[in-house]
Amino acid sequence: xxxxxxxxxxxxxxxxxxxxxxxxxxxxxxxxxxxxxxxxxxxxxxxxxxxxxxxxxxxxxxxxxxxxxxxxxxxxxxxxxxxxxxxxxxxxxxxxxxxxxxxxxxxxxxxxxxxxxxxxxxxxxxxxxxxxxxxxxxxxxxxxxxxxxxxxxxxxxxxxxxxxxxxxxxxxxxxxxxxxxxxxxxxxxxxxxxxxxxxxxxxxxxxxxxxxxxxxxx
Length: 218
Hints:
mainly alpha
C-alpha cells in the first residue's frame, strides 16, 4: 500500500473517532434531566436508554445527533481523502466513528453500544445492501423484541455484500465491525439465552404467545 493511501486511511479513522466521541445522549440527558446519561436507566449513553427514561422526544433527538455526527465524519473524510482512497474513506471514517462512540477517551473509554452509528455508516457506505441489512435487523427486533439480536445481525449481514462490492479490505473491516458489535452486546445475548433480557415491544410477546398457542400441545 502506498504511504499516502495508508496515511489517508489513518486520518479517516482519527477523524471518525473525534466525531464519534461526541456522545449525543450525554448532552440530551443533561439538558432534559440535569443528570448524566449514566445515572439513568441502564446507564448506557444511547438512544434506547434515553428514550426509555426521558421519552420519545429525547430519544429521537439523540438519534438525530448520532446520525448527524456519523454523516459529518464520513462526509468530511470523503471530502478530504476520496481522491486518494475513494469509497474507503467512508469505510474507515465510519469504523472510527463507531470506535469513538463506543470507546471515547474523554469518558474513560466507556461509551455507547454503537447501534445507530453503525446503521448510519452502513447506509452511507453500502446504500442498497446497508439499508436492507438495517431493515432485516429492525424486523428481527420487532418480531422477537430483543435489541441485542438486531444489533449483532445487522453488521453480520453486511460482511458478504461489503466484500463483494469493494473487495477483501472492505469485508475484513466490516467483519471487525461485527466483532465489535458482538462484544458490546455479548451480555445482552447471554441474558436472552437466560430469559432475563427485557423485551423491546409488546408485539414480540404477543407473537411468542401466538406461536405457543399454535404449536404447543394441548
